[in-house]
Design brief:
two-stranded parallel sheet, 2 strands, flat
Length: about 400
């Protein structure tokens, strides 16, 4: 016990078992606001659950369990229940319930002085134990119609999170363009202008290339009408977004708006089109690098991997990013509120101990939400519940 206390320290124990904000149990981590630290910890919880679900989909896991785990051979325990699609459904069901419960619990919180703030920012060991308990209970839910019912919840939640992902990508694209455009105006260096132009051209080159490849490999001369419609419809949308982004009225309202943002969003729409066509049940209307793959059941393929990469990026972005003052999307504002003005910082004296031997370097996380929360806690948990449903459907190939 003494060794554990020596490694983690009292602050980390307070983080795991008490209401103190977490400093990630690492003395090398830079100091940060508790609003950022808490979001990162919830993102880690979501990522750990995703890795667990991916392991459950491993092809040889069931065989290994039956061969090496003694109780798997007992008649009253079927190891098929803890692997495969339904296992992913049950684990994600538990995490979704956890985040929905947290969202309901945090309704109306205005600042860290609220008693519920300790639950939001601390008690991480207790939270993991609660999540594990819900997960164990989920495996006792009878099969029956649970799978098909929860699939429809996953479809709806996954679709909503796709919209949230789009909003996060729009916010990222605007911040990216504003940052580089501001540096171009400050330094008057043509390098920043060339960088903006180069990435815009690269994005549109990728869009055109992908559209051509879609038409070649995902359509046939006589069939695949749905794929043809979505390819043409997506191309028209990409052109419209580019035109609208440079209209005088749009430039007047948002001077930094331009083709870079439109190209980034269009590229994401191209990915969504590819994802939809890849999940088409018609085997003749999608690409098979290996002809034998057409006869195999759906698995963890390239489309799923790219989808998870985008998902992880959006989750981490929403956990770390604070929106700029120019953000005008209400949904993004609720999630990515500017927390530089919320509460106070170390310079204001909060989060520090001025007596005793504690120095400033020991303060790893300070409270910046005493007067006002830096982001909507309920909305944040709701978004993570939707993110859980999205990753559930992505891992299971939307149950195709």
């Amino acid at each position: 016990m003494g060794a554990v206390l020596g490694v983690c320290g009292a602050a980390q124990l307070a983080c795991c078992c008490g209401s103190a904000a977490c400093s990630l149990c690492c003395s090398a981590c830079p100091s940060c606001k508790n609003s950022t630290s808490t979001r990162i910890m919830y993102a880690v919880m979501l990522l750990v659950t995703t890795i667990t679900c991916a392991i459950m989909l491993s092809p040889g896991l069931q065989t290994q369990l039956e061969n090496h785990v003694p109780f798997c051979g007992e008649s009253n325990l079927n190891c098929q229940n803890i692997v495969g699609y339904m296992a992913v459904y049950r684990v994600c069901f538990a995490l979704t319930i956890f985040f929905v419960a947290m969202a309901c619990l945090m309704i109306g919180v205005k600042g860290s002085k609220d008693p519920r703030a300790g639950i939001q920012n601390g008690f991480w060991a207790v939270k993991y134990l609660v999540l594990i308990g819900i997960t164990i209970g989920a495996f006792f839910i009878p099969g029956g119609s649970f799978g098909i019912t929860w699939m429809y919840f996953g479809l709806i939640g996954g679709f909503i999170f796709i919209m949230i992902q789009l909003i996060l990508i729009v916010d990222f694209a605007h911040s990216w363009a504003e940052n580089w455009y501001a540096k171009f105006e400050e330094s008057e260096s043509r390098g920043w202008y060339c960088a903006l132009l180069s990435f815009t051209i690269l994005h549109y080159a990728l869009i055109i290339t992908a559209t051509v490849l879609f038409w070649v490999y995902y359509t046939t001369s006589e069939g695949c009408g749905e794929n043809k419609f979505f390819i043409i419809f997506n191309l028209i949308l990409c052109i419209l977004m580019g035109v609208v982004s440079v209209l005088p009225k749009v430039q007047e309202f948002h001077p930094s708006s331009g083709l870079l943002q439109a190209s980034a969003v269009s590229l994401y729409c191209v990915y969504l089109t590819w994802s939809a066509m890849s999940n088409n049940p018609e085997q003749s209307c999608k690409l098979h690098i290996n002809p034998e793959d057409a006869n195999k059941p759906p698995g963890f393929d390239t489309q799923s991997i790219i989808g998870l990469i985008i998902w992880i990026t959006c989750v981490l972005y929403s956990s770390i990013r604070t929106s700029s003052q120019t953000a005008r999307l209400s949904l993004a504002t609720n999630l990515l509120k500017d927390d530089n003005s919320a509460g106070s910082d170390v310079e204001g004296g909060r989060g520090q101990t001025t007596t005793g031997n504690q120095n400033q370097e020991e303060v790893k996380v300070w409270d910046n939400e005493e007067d006002q929360i830096a982001y909507s806690w309920s909305f944040f948990h709701l978004m993570f519940a939707l993110a859980t449903l999205y990753v559930m459907m992505t891992l299971t190939n939307w149950f195709t």
